[in-house]
Amino acid sequence: MLLTISTTHQPATDLGYLLYKHPERAQSFDVASGKVHVFYPEASEERCTAAMLLEVDPVRLVRGNEGAHGEGWTLRQYVNDRPYVASSFVSVALGVVFRSAMAGQCKERPELATKAIDLRVELSAVPCPGDGAMIARLFEPLGYQVEATRLPLDPAFPAWGGSPCFAVTLTATMPLSQMLGHLYVLLPVLDGEKHYWVGDAEVDKLLRYGQGWLEPHPERELIARRYLKFRGLTKDALKALREDDDAPADDARIDDATVSESTEPHVTLQSRRMDAVASAIVASGATRVLDLGCGEGQLMERLRDYAQFEKFVGVDVSYRELERAARRLRLEGWPDVQDQRVVLMQGSLLYRDRRLAEFDAAALVEVIEHLDPPRLATLEEMVFRHMRPRTLVVTTPNREYNSVWESLPAGGRRHDDHRFEWTREQFQGWGDGLAERFGYEVRYRGIGDEVEGVGAPTQMGVFTRGEEVGRG
Ligand code: SAH
């Protein structure tokens, strides 16, 4: 995978100072995935090009990753596109060899680091789903001119048609550090491949480099979704490594069933549900978030890295679940000491609690089906009349989908404690009634792979308070 960065900023060789790499020297670095070479194909006063060549070593990748996902040996582990395409390996390599440049530092020419200079980036192969339009949708809003040309599968056999990869040229005038941050985040988003061995620190970096431009980006939902999927997978992989990881999540039995059916085998339904809810909450523009029936805190864990949020409150009746949440969220000293930003409260959603009023957004994820009808009516009053969040995201199982699960006896429910499971019509009837009664707009969508005639395994309703509707 070859990436070049060129400038005609004068003198162009300043690029060497910005990248902390001398234009006259070729250098090589070891990274986890293989070797990175940095060199300058051209370096004159008028025009300077720095090249980063990443040589991914497929054998090393497999060795470093043995046992992480227990798949055993397959040829695909060795023969795949990883050595040739822009992926999170390129991000990791950028972070290693251009660390200071990414941080916006330049010892020799400090004023250069923040200066907008003309830049041209060429990437030899960028994988992108569909027609490649996503490349422009991601980069154009950030001020780039984008050229993307689909690469042939094999230039010697034009009849074979195109590959899933594009040759990409990006041009823009901006500080170099900013451009490196965009590449760092967006290349893995375009790629969408799973990298089980990327650690938590890498994930945090993705969020850090997104700061300042991700929130106002019109495609932030798409970016967050594809990024969070990536993160979910990381978590799953890490989880698999940890022997002492505690009890399965609420729907574990069902999620195991999905694993073998899904086209993305390692993304559990729970993970996709968290991604969908997290995206809806991020997109609502909320700053204060309530997680009602937060369980072990997975949603807050997904959201907490976003700078947009000032406060999270998770409420649950179960002390055991809260203890798990405190561990997951690393809330040292809980329950005696509370974090300022992330607060866990034991409480019931069936009693009025003034501390829960005045939140921007609330989540009610896989909770309503645990309440029998008279209690559900009480919960509706508490949430819609007293808490009155601007945005409320509710999820519940879609009963119609149960017929698809062979492991489920006919007419059976997904969990012993579920008091009901609704069809899409029932859920939407319930939601429409509440929206009408309390002055909300509601939109529905499915979560998980849809099956014709029965819909998706989980259904989600996003309620927006009336006076907010249409405010953009
Ligand atoms: N939202 C979490 C957990 C879902 S399981 C997730 O999706 O991972 C349902 C949770 O609702 C459980 O943790 C249960 O303890 C909690 N719960 C059930 N009834 C409740 C009530 N009346 N008040 C508060 N929490 C309740």
| Main beta-sheet strand count, sense and barrel state | 7 strands, antiparallel
Bound molecules: S-adenosyl-L-homocysteine
Secondary-structure class: alpha/beta
Q: pLDDT under 50 segments (min length 5)? A: 65-73, 233-266
CATH class call of the largest domain: Alpha Beta
For the largest sheet, list the strands in their spatial order: 2-3-4-1-5-7-6
Portion of residues in beta strands equals: 15-25%
CATH homology-level superfamily of the largest domain: Vaccinia Virus protein VP39
- Work out the number of β strands: 14
Mean pLDDT: 82
Tell me the number of structural domains: 2
Percent range for helical residues? 25-40%
Q: Could you name the CATH topology of the largest domain?
A: Rossmann fold
Shape: elongated
